[in-house]
Amino acid sequence: MVLQAIKYQRGALEILDQLKLPHTETYDTISTVQYGWDAIKEMRTRGAPAIAIVAALSLAIDLTNQGESQESAKAAQEYISSQLAYLVTSRPTAVNLADAARKLNKMVDAAAKNEDATWKSVINAYVEAAEQMLIDDVADNEAIGKHGADWIRKNTEQGKTGPVSMLTHCNTGSLATAGYGTALGVIRSLHAAGSLKHAFCTETRPYNQGSRLTAFELVHDNIPATLITDSMASALLRLKGPSERIAGIVVGADRVAANGDTANKIGTYALAITAKYHGVKFLVAAPRTTIDLETKSGKDIVIEERPGKEVTMVKGPCISDGTLNLQKVETVNIAANGIGVWNPAFDVTPAELIDGIITEVGVVEKDGNGNFDLKSIFDQDVEGKLPTVGGI
């Protein structure tokens, strides 16, 4: 059973506190917009798709619990707009959050303009739209997993001849989404089809999303996997690439620019370089909500910088006589006092290093000129259905 990081029913929202993983599974109740903002900012919930959903649902919970109001439909629209704007400030690099806010604002504006619109009708329209986001994300992730697994089997030498191994970075699974995952969803899909030999995950310093979260999910799902530090990736591809049949590296994304440049967890850029050198595929897995056609290239992406203490300190339960003591959690300093720290949360991988962008409607490949045409996956045919790209 895939982990459930977001538990929701109308009027009640709980999130799995990811800061306490992998040792303790604790769900936090989110009852207001402020609680949602805090959970995102403190990284108790993280991952671009999950951030957007938790933000949207925290406002839905807030509105549902407010009850009846004599205010106008216009007042409801203005309140929702202001709360969405506030939620976007929690993690500005993750484009899914801003994209969700734009779409929800547009829907609310339309609902407020109805001739018989009321506060209640506008609120109900918002809540239903936020709930649909949760449903759609799971379906999109499962589609991403299928398309990515199919592409790997068809477009890598290892995939054409048997099970493959894959390396992934950060956490892109059920804990980062509404369920199943993006890049980790590709690995899950390969495993489910009997096409996965082994999964490798990076530690993902400085916040250790790989060792704490991805490793936790892999163990939970009984997927054969090995943890490495970020600095071991090149050695892994050189020394174990052939014997382990490593076909590629698959990562998620916090923002994909119109030209394919991708902002993702710090360390992604280095992995793309090592993939190119060692001749393995480098794939980005992300729903279309992560693609920002208004951002022309990676040069226009503002990178969030995190507190220096995330690099100089680590937190976790203590070991007493060889036994994990969950009741005693300590923060330990691991750096020289007084040293300066630079801690960007993300880096930008140039499109030229990316072999394919896996979306819920297919895998986008470069054209004959080496360019990604990401606009094409937003175009609809005459029946209103999105076309499949990349031959899948």
Automatic annotation (TrEMBL):
Pathway: Amino-acid biosynthesis; L-methionine biosynthesis via salvage pathway; L-methionine from S-methyl-5-thio-alpha-D-ribose 1-phosphate: step 1/6. One of its GO terms (molecular function) is S-methyl-5-thioribose-1-phosphate isomerase activity. One of its GO terms (cellular component) is cytoplasm. Its main location: cytoplasm. Transmembrane segments: none annotated. Its EC number is 5.3.1.23. SUPFAM superfamilies: NagB/RpiA/CoA transferase-like. Keywords: Amino-acid biosynthesis, Cytoplasm, Isomerase, Methionine biosynthesis, Nucleus. GO terms for biological process: L-methionine salvage from methylthioadenosine. The keyword Protease does not apply. It catalyses: 5-(methylsulfanyl)-alpha-D-ribose 1-phosphate = 5-(methylsulfanyl)-D-ribulose 1-phosphate. InterPro entries: IF-2B-related (IPR000649), IF-M1Pi (IPR005251), IF_2B-like_C (IPR042529), Initiation_fac_2B_a/b/d (IPR011559), M1Pi_N (IPR027363), NagB/RpiA_transferase-like (IPR037171). The keyword Isomerase applies. It is found in: Cytoplasm; Nucleus. The active site is at residue 254. It comes from the Eukaryota. The record marks 170 as: Transition state stabilizer. Catalyzes the interconversion of methylthioribose-1-phosphate (MTR-1-P) into methylthioribulose-1-phosphate (MTRu-1-P). Belongs to the eIF-2B alpha/beta/delta subunits family. MtnA subfamily. HAMAP family: Salvage_MtnA. This is Methylthioribose-1-phosphate isomerase. The gene is MRI1.
